[in-house]
Amino acid sequence: MSAPMGQPRLRLPQQIRTGEIIEIRTLISHIMETGQRRNAEGQIVPRDIIKSFVCRFDGQEVFSMELAPAIAANPYIAFPLKVEGPGTLELVWTNDAGEERRATAQLRPA
Amino acid sequence: MSRDRLSRRDGLALAAGLVGLSLLPRAAAAEMPAAARAALDRVLAGRAAEEGGITLRLPAIAENGNSVPMAVIVDSPMTAADHIRTIHVFADRNPTPEVALFRLTPAMGRAQVETRIRLGETQDVIAVAETSTGRLMIGRAEVKVTIGGCGG
């Protein structure tokens, strides 16, 4: 059984101007088990991490990340996006078992 | 702290002057553990990487290696014709040196990524950025770790 993936959190600016470069900040709760730790019985705890993150804008991939066990628990990922017009932001986190968490937001620059 | 950093940078600049800039990446990498060297070589694939153009924003001292804030910023116009395509990040003394691979596009407007990483001990964090024109850039930052973060 995989470690639980929490509800993703997404922080965006309150107001966006057309053409502005905004910062998208994300956080998802996850243990990020490295696969190197031993339990009380001395056995290796199997690796269980969020291994990928993808951001799409109107279906087009704009940014992605492959995560290794060296990413801290509860992965925080922040990156910029230049908002040229309105559209749908979609963020997808995937764990080692292939399970996904998804967050979406409408961007409406003024 | 800033005096340490300055003197280290001065030393690097001096070394660059003595041995020539193109030799520096290899000279600096000589003391790198074999696993990190191999991981870095897989990305470089025999190509030369220029020093500079990458800012690694990391604390000089991390009290807790379990969660170390890191920002990587690369000089790039981020246009369709010339942008950063990938940033590989390594921690040269972690049990697994690969930390992350970021894939960037011109839609971002700026070549900047931020996350939090685990560092098992005091070591160098190394970033390699590749542009859409095939140019490679390399940067590094040393982090002194008080309590290691690999759960070993």
TrEMBL record, chain A:
Residues 13-105 form the Sulphur oxidation protein SoxZ domain. Coiled coil: none annotated. It comes from the Bacteria. Gene3D superfamilies: Immunoglobulins (2.60.40.10). This is Sulfur-oxidizing protein SoxZ.
UniProtKB/TrEMBL annotation, chain B:
The keyword ATP-binding does not apply. Pfam families: SoxY. Gene3D superfamilies: SoxY domain. The keyword Metal-binding does not apply. NCBIfam families: SoxY_true_GGCGG. Keywords: Signal. This is Sulfur-oxidizing protein SoxY. The lineage of its organism: Bacteria, Pseudomonadati, Pseudomonadota, Alphaproteobacteria, Acetobacterales. Residues 44-150 form the Ig-like SoxY domain. It comes from Neoroseomonas alkaliterrae. Residues 1-29 form the signal peptide. InterPro entries: SoxY, SoxY_sf, Sulphur_oxidation_SoxY, TAT_signal.
